[in-house]
Structure formats: structure tokens, C-alpha cells
């Protein structure tokens, strides 16, 4: 159907998952090319998952040099200083990932001009906006994802542009279509019409994003000392959106700026959900997440939030 | 905040952890525990690594196939966390402070583990996944339900007559091919087999039909194969058809004979069995009929002719290459030739009964009871286990949650936490509520009670049965010969003939010292039992009641996932023969338990449905 059959080797290796998503989905996976940046704990988990699933290729980008901190929740980096000294996170992770599944091409070079999926991990507001815009301008549809973890919380954003997929309704397969807003659109939705029960993390993440951009900070470069500035920004954003300040709890903001050490169980959970979504997006099978996902280990909920301009119209 | 985090870290670092199982969830769990700061982890698994594990059990590589899972997992994690203590066991459970389970434990073993936890007052975090669905549950004695408070789904069974004479689904054909035909041809000849039971006039011609399956010394294998083929797909169907009553409201099956499907002789055309035996090495795992017939794709649907060719070819190969194993074989999903034979036989039977045929890939999944598994769900569930484990170590009882992973969001949630259920007050395991046993006390022997109830239903390993002060039965290494003889003679007596007669109204005490479980059984005498509905000839009640006292939000909110999980896990097993496999049973000796008590336990097996 989709070109070549899976090889005998692939069928044997992927047996258990083909039983979950079918041979067609597996064929599409083996032909997909994924770009990933920002390889910290959650993204390391994500990479492991998609390499195991058997995508065609994974291209890694993370120029930061490996240090003590990068070892924290990233099991792709062996803690041997002699081995990692002077190497980038991407280089070290690439070596580990290759080993997980020899059938997947893992590299730090941009060997593929065109990616099917782009994942921005722990990106700044500007990066997320810019890369998303770039993806949207390409003639070929590129699935765009961002992931961000702070303390024991996480956010996933999904932009599949105009997305067609099949889902099973009773015994029949139904063709469906969804239109996704861009990152820019999704983060500029006025707060007031957003239903009150929406995850508070959506608002809190916007506050932190603006804080880091205003202050010229890298992702996660903050501490309790920054709380007054963060609260000031929150106040301004709430005023601009004509909502009360209680809309974004101070305690949550405090958690997000102080919890700078990654919480490995949360990384496993969010990295797992993200990989599941990317697999869905590539295979066109099953209802995708639209367009934000939030997890908070404190209440244990993993929630999908559809935040688009539909509220305003 | 800081002190809280320090407390958390010291709780984690002080914990000695035992994981049972290093499979799908196990690999993920070991990794997440190590990253989360757990320092002293013991991991146990009796399994060795297979190729089909590698798509999700990321600590293993192709070069590890055949090696101990526990050991390879340990070595792999030590590579990124070299300074922690991980000990691996390729055998039995020893003496940890904290236990984490992740294995394909059977329901029986799960119950055993549950009781060990209850006996030692050890909290238990338990979980399971299938496909995109997963679940994590905390069991703390007295605070939440125990693992046996709720009914567990038993492997699906089918009435014998559906399998032997009136199949309506492909799974019925698979069960027939695997449990009856395959067992008859290649398994233990002395075992009871219903293959011919329902054929008309079975009694009168039983001698004759028995002989069909015996191969004469010098009988040509292909001729023999055709004879079997004609007997089971032709003659037996004809015989069944003659019983008009059966087919009044059913679609009549079509007898199929080899001469109508296959050319006169296969030997010249395809039969390369003899030719190739000279060249290939006799490795039973790699013997396969498919390449000899030019069949490559296991996902391809074969027609009647192809299935018939595979049937004959596979049968020939068993006799030509694996003759020594005949008489001792049981179906194994990793035995390629067995899968080919069962697929072909099931498909020919399906054709006969007008049931849609299936590919080898699909048939293997059904016959082997293969659980759908992906890496992502296991990773998510492992994360959830560690989060609950930390709460348990911090004794944050109010925060314990049972979490469901869903495939589609329900009330916006993909990960849905609910409050844990309270203990079921009528649970015979954790609440010591007496059970009621209806039994014919004059006819049923003590042996029936021991086998069908005490071992099979109550899952006791080393039972002891008392009536009042009189000891009726006991198992143990320290018994003298007189006692053993005494107990053995009791086994063969009916309940009412026992030295202390067990009659209507008697109360039995049944104990397992290893599990520290003791329960009371109220005996009710009953004369008759329905053979179809109550084949055991006795009915035990009160041992699988669901709690009715739980919060409504919890029980309604998980409806959706409960239904889905149940569907996807209903394994086609005609009988639960493999369930009690002792290789899966973790044993903690009483002495060891006393010297080093388990502080917490976490289990994660594949199928766990509330």
C-alpha cells in the first residue's frame, strides 16, 4: 500500500507494536524523518521512544557542552568525564541512541533537507515562534511540537497545520480533518474567554516565557530571587487580559521558577506522551492531541487543552 | 520546599528496592528509579531476552538475545549510574526493603505476591499496560483495597462443544488447532483429548478413530498427513453433519478432503523435505515450511490451497526433522513450525465453517495470546509508579492515586488519577471474611477440594486444612512418613468419610503458612451440579465480590478504560493450564521475611484490570 513491505527483520523486531498500530503505520514510521533540539531529560526520553518505535531518522541538535547538570535526568549520557569532556550533548546522545536500534539513522548532521517532524525542546519564546513559522512556510506539511518541563510539570504544544487522519468509529474507518493554530496564534489567545477550568499551567507557562524573554534568560535560568519580577509580569498580563490576578496562582509560578532540577519520573511521562503523539502524527492513525498537553505530578493529571481562537469568535 | 525535597531524597536513598521482572515496564522502571536517586535496587526476572522484546525493552540489544533479562538490565543501567547498588537475580525473590514488580506474572502469582505484602504489612504499587492503555495502583494494608479485593478477569474459556463441533469465530478454530489437533498429533499421547468426542457414533468407532492418528512405522509421511487431513477436515465434519439436530439453526460446515484441494502427489512439486534435510542444520527453532513453499510475508492471507500445503509440509517437517520431540510438544508461540501448523489447521477449519481466514501474523497473536505492547505506555507507567512509590515512602497517604493511561482523552484527561478504592470488607484475603462452598460432601473427595478450590481458586501454595482441631491435610518438607501416608489416604476419601467428617454446616480452616493467609470456609452440602455451568462439581462464593462502598466518581470515571482494557486482554485460552507455572512464583521464605522486612512493593505486570 505505502510502497515496500517491511523486511523480515523489521517484522520480527516490531512485532508487538505492529499489533498495536498495524503494518501500514509502521511503514510510514520507518520513512519519517524527525528533527529534535534541546536534549534534556524529557527530550532524551522522547528520543529513546521514537528510536525504539523505528522512525526513519532522528537528527539531534544541542550544542551545549556536557556538564554535571546535563547528566541529571538524561540517561543517554554516561557519566564519564573523560568521555564527554568537550563534546556536545547532541554528540553524546547520538552515540547512545544509535545503539538502541541499528535500523534508525541517528545523526547530529542535517542529512535530510526535509523533516516530517520538528520537536523543539526547552526552547525560548522567540525560537518556538520562529521555527514554527518556518515550518508553516514550507510546501510540505511539517508536524511541529514543543515540549517544556519545569519542576514536576510539563507542557507539550502541537501544530499539525491542516491535518487529516483516520479514526475508528465503531467498525468503520472515518476520515477526519483538524485545523491547528500556529504557536504564535495559540499563545496570543485572549485569556478572558478561555474556560475557567483550563489548566493553570497554560497561563503560568506564558508568564515564565515572557519573563525569560524580557530578562534575556536561557530556559530555566531563574531562581526564587526572580519571583518579584515574575509576579510583576503576571500582574501586567492579567491586567492586559482583563482577568483577576488569581487566574495564575503565585504558588505555581514559584514552583516553576525554583524547580530547576528535572524530575525524572515526570520526564518519562511527558516524553512518553510526546512520542505517542509524534507516532500518531506520522502514521496518521488515531485522534491527535490538539493543541496543548499539561502534566503536573502534584495532582497527577495529564490534560489536553484545545486553545485556539475559537473562543473569541 | 528545600527541606521537603531533602526529606524526599533521604526517603528515596534509604530505600532498598526489589523489582520482580525486567521486561517492558521493568526496563523503564529500573531506569527511572536509578535517575530518581534510588540507590539500592534488586532486580529479579526468570526470563531471557527475545528479539520481540527489543522494540521496547531498551536496555537490551540484539547481541543479548538469550541472556538473563535481570542481569543485562542491571549492567545497562550501571553504565549511566555506576555508583548505585543494583543486584540482579535470575531466579527467586530474596529479602528487600522495597519491592517493585514488573513481569508477566500470572494471576495466581499476583495473588501470592499480594498475600506476602499483606502478611508483612508492605505497601504495594502495582501496574500494567496493554497497547496504549495502562494503570498504576497503590495497595496499602488497611488504607486501600488489596490486589484481591476486586474480581480479576479470568482467561476466556469456551464451551468444549463450541470448539469441537460448532465454531463460530476464528479464535475457536485456533483453540481447536492448538489445544486439540496439535496436542493430539505432537503432544502427550496419554492426555485426554476431545478431538473426536462429538463425532457421531464416536463410541462405536472409537477404536478405529484412535488408530487414524497412529503412524505406522513405514508409512509415507505425506500419505499419513493426508490421512489426518481427510479425517479431521473431511470425515469428522461429515460425521458431525449427520447429527441433524446440531445444524437446525446453524450454518452447515463443508467437509474438505485433500484430493479436492491438493494435487495427487506433492513430493515432486514442492516436497523438498528430503532433499533439503541433507543441507540444512537440524535446529528445531528454525525449521519452517513457509520458505519451502515460497511464502515470505507472514501478514499475507493464504487461501485454502496454500493453507493445505502448509499443513502437509509442516506435518512432514515435524516427522522428518523433529521426530524426537513428537509426543512431548506443547504449543509455543515462538516455535515457528508449530505456529505454521496451527495457522494452517485453523484456517482450513475456518474455511469449512465459513469463518473468515487470518494471516499467520494474526493467528500467531491469537494462538500465543500475545499482548500488544509499545515503549511509550511502559515509560509513562514507570514514571507513574515512581511518583506513587515516592509518596508511599513519604507516607503521604492522602495523596495516593490510582492512575489510568487512556488512548483517547476522557474529560480532557489522558492521564486520569482517581482516589484509591477502600478495602473491600468482604474480601477473603485482606478482610478474612468466611467463604461459602457448595459441594457434594458424600461424593467429592478431599483431593477435589484441594485441587479445585484451595490451589486453583484460593491460590495457596502450601496449604493446611483443618476441621475444628482435626488436621485433615498439610503440605511441607518437615512431615514424617506416617503423616504423609495419613494425608494421602485422606485425599482419596470423600469429605463425609474423613476422620472428622465434613458435612453440611461444617466450617473448615484453610491456611497457607508461607502466605500467612488463613481463611474459613462454610460448607454447604448440595446433591446436584450442572455439568455445563458448574463443571467443577462445586461452587465457591464470597471470594471475588466487588466492593460496593467506593466513591462513585471513581467507579464511573474509569468505566471507559475498564471496558477497553477488558476487551483487549481477553486471551483465548481454552483452559488455564499454564497459569500455575511455578517458574513465575516468587518465594520469600519466612525466616528471610523476619530478618529483613519488605518496606514497600511495586508491581507492574502487563494485564491488570479492575
From TrEMBL, chain A:
Example of a GO biological process term: protein sumoylation
GO CC annotation: cytoplasm; SUMO activating enzyme complex
Keyword Membrane: no
Protein location: Nucleus
Sequence ranges assigned to domain THIF-type NAD/FAD binding fold in this UniProt record: 14-299
InterPro entries: ThiF/MoeB/HesA, ThiF_NAD_FAD-bd, Ubiquitin-activating_enz
Record keyword Nucleus present: yes
Family membership noted in the UniProt record: Belongs to the ubiquitin-activating E1 family.
Protein name (Swiss-Prot/TrEMBL): Ubiquitin-like 1-activating enzyme E1A
From TrEMBL, chain B:
Enzyme active site: 161
Comp. bias (Polar residues): 542-571
Coiled coil: none
Ubiquitin/SUMO-activating enzyme ubiquitin-like domain: residues covered: 437-529
InterPro entries linked to this entry: ThiF/MoeB/HesA (IPR045886), ThiF_NAD_FAD-bd (IPR000594), UAE_UbL_dom (IPR028077), Ub-E1_IAD_1 (IPR042449), Ub_act_enz_dom_a_sf (IPR023318), Uba2 (IPR030661), UBA_E1_SCCH (IPR019572), Ubiquitin-activating_enz (IPR035985)
Gene3D superfamilies reported for this sequence: Ubiquitin activating enzymes (Uba3). Chain: B, domain 2, Ubiquitin-activating enzyme E1, inactive adenylation domain, subdomain 1, Ubiquitin-like 2 activating enzyme e1b. Chain: B, domain 3
Gene Ontology terms: biological process: protein sumoylation
One cellular component term from this protein's GO annotations in UniProt: cytoplasm
Binding locations of ATP: 21-26, 45, 53-56, 69
Keyword Nucleotide-binding among record annotations: yes
Disordered: annotated span: 527-597
Keyword vocabulary terms for this entry: ATP-binding, Metal-binding, Nucleotide-binding, Ubl conjugation pathway, Zinc
Occurrences of domain THIF-type NAD/FAD binding fold (ranges): 6-428
Superkingdom per UniProt: Eukaryota
Oligomeric form and interacting partners: Heterodimer.
Homology family: Belongs to the ubiquitin-activating E1 family.
Protein name: SUMO-activating enzyme subunit
Amino acid at each position: 500500500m505505502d510502497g515496500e513491505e517491511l523486511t523480515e527483520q523489521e517484522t520480527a523486531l516490531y512485532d508487538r507494536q505492529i499489533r498495536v498500530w498495524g503494518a501500514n503505520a509502521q511503514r510510514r514510521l520507518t520513512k519519517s524523518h524527525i528533527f529534535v533540539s534541546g536534549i534534556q531529560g524529557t527530550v532524551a526520553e522522547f528520543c529513546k521512544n521514537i528510536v525504539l518505535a523505528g522512525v526513519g531518522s532522528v537528527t539531534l541538535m544541542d550544542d551545549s557542552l556536557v556538564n554535571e547538570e546535563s547528566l541529571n535526568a538524561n540517561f543517554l549520557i554516561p557519566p564519564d568525564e573523560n568521555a564527554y569532556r568537550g563534546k556536545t550533548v547532541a554528540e553524546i546522545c547520538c552515540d547512545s541512541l544509535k545503539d538502541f536500534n541499528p535500523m534508525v539513522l541517528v545523526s547530529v548532521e542535517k542529512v535530510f533537507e526535509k523533516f516530517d517532524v520538528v520537536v523543539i525542546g526547552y526552547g525560548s519564546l522567540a525560537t518556538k515562534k520562529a521555527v514554527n513559522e518556518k515550518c508553516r512556510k514550507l510546501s510540505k506539511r511539517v508536524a511541529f511540537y514543543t515540549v517544556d518541563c519545569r519542576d514536576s510539570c510539563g507542557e507539550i504544544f502541537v501544530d499539525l497545520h491542516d491535518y487529516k487522519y483516520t479514526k475508528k468509529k465503531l467498525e468503520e474507518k472515518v476520515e477526519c480533518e483538524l485545523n491547528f493554530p500556529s504557536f504564535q496564534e495559540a499563545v496570543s489567545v485572549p485569556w478572558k474567554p478561555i474556560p475557567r477550568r483550563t489548566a493553570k499551567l497554560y497561563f503560568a507557562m506564558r508568564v515564565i516565557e515572557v519573563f525569560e524573554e524580557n530578562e534575556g534568560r536561557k530556559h530555566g535560568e531563574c531562581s526564587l530571587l526572580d519571583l518579584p519580577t515574575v509576579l510583576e509580569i503576571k500582574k501586567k498580563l492579567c491586567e492586559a487580559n482583563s482577568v483577576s490576578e488569581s487566574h495564575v496562582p503565585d504558588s505555581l509560578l514559584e514552583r516553576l521558577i525554583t524547580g530547576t532540577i528535572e524530575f525524572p519520573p515526570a520526564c518519562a511521562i511527558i516524553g512518553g506522551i510526546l512520542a505517542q503523539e509524534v507516532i500518531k502524527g506520522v502514521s496518521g492513525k488515531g485522534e491527535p492531541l490538539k493543541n496543548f498537553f499539561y502534566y503536573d505530578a502534584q495532582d497527577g493529571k495529564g490534560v489536553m487543552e484545545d486553545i485556539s481562537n475559537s473562543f473569541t469568535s | 520546599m528545600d527541606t521537603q525535597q531533602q526529606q524526599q531524597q533521604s526517603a528515596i536513598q534509604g530505600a532498598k528496592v526489589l523489582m520482580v521482572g525486567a521486561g517492558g515496564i521493568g526496563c523503564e522502571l529500573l531506569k527511572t528509579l536509578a535517575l530518581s536517586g534510588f540507590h539500592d535496587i534488586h532486580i529479579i526476572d526468570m526470563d531471557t531476552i527475545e528479539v520481540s522484546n527489543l522494540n521496547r525493552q531498551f536496555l537490551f540489544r540484539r547481541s543479548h538475545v538469550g541472556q538473563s533479562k535481570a542481569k543485562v538490565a542491571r549492567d545497562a543501567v550501571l553504565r549511566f549510574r555506576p555508583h548505585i547498588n543494583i543486584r540482579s537475580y535470575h531466579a527467586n525473590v530474596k529479602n528487600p526493603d522495597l519491592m517493585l514488580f514488573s513481569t508477566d506474572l500470572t494471576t495466581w502469582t499476583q495473588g501470592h505476591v499480594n498475600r506476602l505484602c499483606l502478611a508483612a504489612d508492605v505497601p504495594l504499587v502495582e501496574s500494567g499496560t496493554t497497547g496504549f492503555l495502562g494503570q498504576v495502583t497503590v495497595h496499602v494494608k488497611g488504607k486501600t483495597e488489596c490486589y484481591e479485593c476486586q474480581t480479576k478477569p479470568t482467561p476466556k474459556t469456551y464451551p468444549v462443544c463450541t470448539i469441537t463441533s460448532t465454531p463460530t469465530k476464528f479464535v475457536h478454530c485456533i483453540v481447536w488447532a492448538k489445544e486439540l489437533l496439535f496436542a493430539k498429533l505432537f503432544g502427550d499421547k496419554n492426555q485426554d483429548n476431545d478431538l473426536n468426542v462429538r463425532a457421531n457414533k464416536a463410541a462405536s468407532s472409537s477404536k478405529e478413530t484412535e488408530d487414524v492418528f497412529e503412524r505406522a512405522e513405514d508409512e509415507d509421511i505425506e500419505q499419513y498427513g493426508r490421512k489426518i487431513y481427510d479425517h479431521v477436515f473431511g470425515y469428522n465434519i461429515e460425521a458431525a453433519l449427520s447429527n441433524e439436530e446440531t445444524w437446525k439453526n446453524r450454518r452447515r460446515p463443508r467437509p474438505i478432503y485433500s484430493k479436492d484441494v491438493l494435487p495427487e502427489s506433492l513430493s515432486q512439486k514442492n516436497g523438498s523435505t528430503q532433499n533439503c534435510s541433507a543441507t540444512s542444520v537440524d535446529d528445531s527453532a528454525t525449521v519452517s515450511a513457509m520458505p519451502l513453499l515460497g511464502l515470505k510475508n507472514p501478514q499475507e492471507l493464504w487461501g485454502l490451497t496454500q493453507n493445505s500445503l502448509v499443513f502437509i509440509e509442516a506435518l512432514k517437517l515435524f516427522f522428518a526433522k523433529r521426530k524426537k520431540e513428537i509426543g512431548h510438544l506443547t504449543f509455543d508461540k515462538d516455535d515457528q513450525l508449530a505456529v505454521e501448523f496451527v495457522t494452517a489447521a485453523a484456517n482450513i477449519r475456518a474455511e469449512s465453517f465459513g469463518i473468515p481466514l487470518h494471516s499467520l501474523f494474526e493467528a500467531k497473536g491469537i494462538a500465543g495470546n500475545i499482548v500488544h505492547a509499545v515503549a511509550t505506555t511502559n515509560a509513562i507507567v514507570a514514571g507513574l509508579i515512581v511518583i506513587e512509590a515516592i509518596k508511599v515512602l513519604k507516607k503521604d497517604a492522602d495523596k495516593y492515586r490510582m492512575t489510568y493511561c487512556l488512548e483517547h482523552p476522557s474529560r480532557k484527561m489522558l492521564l486520569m488519577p482517581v482516589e484509591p478504592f477502600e478495602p473491600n470488607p468482604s474480601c477473603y484475603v485482606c478482610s478474612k471474611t468466611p467463604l461459602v462452598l457448595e459441594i457434594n460432601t458424600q461424593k467429592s473427595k478431599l483431593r477435589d477440594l484441594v485441587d479445585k478450590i484451595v490451589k486453583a481458586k484460593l491460590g495457596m501454595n502450601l496449604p493446611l486444612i483443618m476441621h475444628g482441631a482435626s488436621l485433615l491435610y498439610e503440605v511441607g518438607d518437615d512431615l514424617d512418613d506416617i503423616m504423609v501416608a495419613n494425608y494421602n489416604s485422606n485425599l482419596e476419601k470423600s469429605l463425609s468419610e474423613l476422620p472428622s467428617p465434613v458435612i453440611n454446616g461444617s466450617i473448615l480452616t484453610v491456611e497457607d503458612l508461607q502466605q500467612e493467609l488463613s481463611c474459613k470456609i462454610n460448607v454447604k452440602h448440595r446433591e446436584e451440579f450442572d455439568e455445563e455451568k458448574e463443571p467443577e462439581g462445586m461452587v465457591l462464593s464470597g471470594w471475588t465480590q466487588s466492593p460496593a462502598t467506593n466513591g462513585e466518581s471513581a467507579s464511573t470515571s474509569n468505566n471507559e478504560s475498564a471496558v477497553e482494557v477488558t476487551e483487549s486482554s481477553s486471551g483465548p485460552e481454552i483452559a488455564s493450564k499454564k497459569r500455575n507455572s511455578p517458574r513465575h512464583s516468587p518465594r520469600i521464605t519466612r525466616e528471610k521475611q523476619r530478618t529483613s522486612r519488605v518496606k514497600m512493593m511495586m508491581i507492574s505486570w502487563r494485564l491488570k484490570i479492575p
